[in-house]
Amino acid sequence: MDMRRLGSWGxxxxxxxxxxxxxxxxxxxxxxxxxxxxxxxxxxLGVNHIDxxxxxxxxxxxxxxxxxxxxxxxxxxxxTKAAIRYVPGTGERRIDNSAxxxxxxxxxxxxxxxxxxxxxxxxxxxEIDRPIEEVVETMAQLKREGKIGxxxxxxxxxxxxxxxxxxxxxxxxxSEYSLWTRGVExxxxxxxxxxxxxxxxxxxxxxGMLTGSPLDPQSFGxxxxxxxxxRFQEPEFSRNRDAVAxxxxxxxxxxxxPATLAIAWVLSADRHILAIPxxxxxxxxxxxxxxxxxxxxxxxxxxxxxxFPEGFxxxxxxxxxxxxxxxxxA
Length: 330
Ligand SMILES: NC(=O)c1ccc[n+]([C@@H]2O[C@H](COP(=O)([O-])OP(=O)(O)OC[C@H]3O[C@@H](n4cnc5c(N)ncnc54)[C@H](OP(=O)(O)O)[C@@H]3O)[C@@H](O)[C@H]2O)c1
Hints:
This protein is of the alpha/beta class. The protein has helices at 32-44, 60-72, 99-113, 132-144, 158-167, 188-195, 236-254, 258-267, 282-290, 298-305, and strands at residues 3-5, 12-14, 18-19, 49-51, 77-82, 84-86, 93-95, 120-123, 151-154, 172-176, 198-202, 273-275. It has one domain: NADP-dependent oxidoreductase domain (TIM Barrel, Alpha-Beta Barrel).
């Protein structure tokens, strides 16, 4: 396993971590037995970074990870997040960066995880009217209290990162990065590198699209995130699927599973990048982890990206309420 540092000073973590949103049912159901098998397999393969959140399965992801860690005594770097809350009754999504909410959300996460602290605590979404300096000060206080090891930000702009980093060292920024979502290449990846911040690439498999496994939007369950995502609606979905078929063909010619190649493509962009693909399957996990062992040169990366036709991808990466709290570059 290729190991990389969290921040320029932090612990070594596996370049491929495990995204645990799927444990909460975002892309289909799973069972407790499957989750335990998946987590044990991840640790056996050398994955030592697990990424979760208080909202994945409304706490279910953290609870199952907590149970696994208690039973296995595995040592991993745990990352969790807070800032999104749901209004009781209506289920409306709100962003809350208040000190009261972040502290109480973290306490509840720690309880579910069965830990006194987590190594990395992210602000999941920024509350746009609240100064980021105030929010980072709240998180710095949690660090002084020993409840978190490092501070992370999710879906922020480069400008917000620079402001935040002036208040307290930021260890990681998490945002979407893959062959079909490349916006962070404009400025964010370089800003992270300059500041010594690790960039954690989420949804590196395009939420399943870049894996070559056939997807049928008609069969997505009611809770599946992709039901409301523009890239999975017609006619965009069919156009995206046809474009991805070229990538799948290239991967086969190169003798690699498409998921392996997609992860390698992300990780080969730079050394300060980690990938956190999500899966419910131990078999898929193996293909994803294999991405950490494939090094692609700059030219090879460019050749892979060049298989996608002009205009790819069709549809924005979020739709409607999915944009709530996501900062686009100023
Ligand atoms: N900060 C944020 O706002 C944010 C947002 C999104 C995600 N994240 C984090 O990033 C993690 C990963 O992102 P993601 O789960 O959205 O998307 P992803 O990793 O791009 O894709 C996950 C999907 O790909 C499928 N898959 C995974 N490996 C596969 C393989 N080898 N072959 C075939 N299918 C495969 C999974 O299905 P199977 O279960 O069937 O394998 C699942 O449907 C999340 O778990 C979460 O921790 C953070």
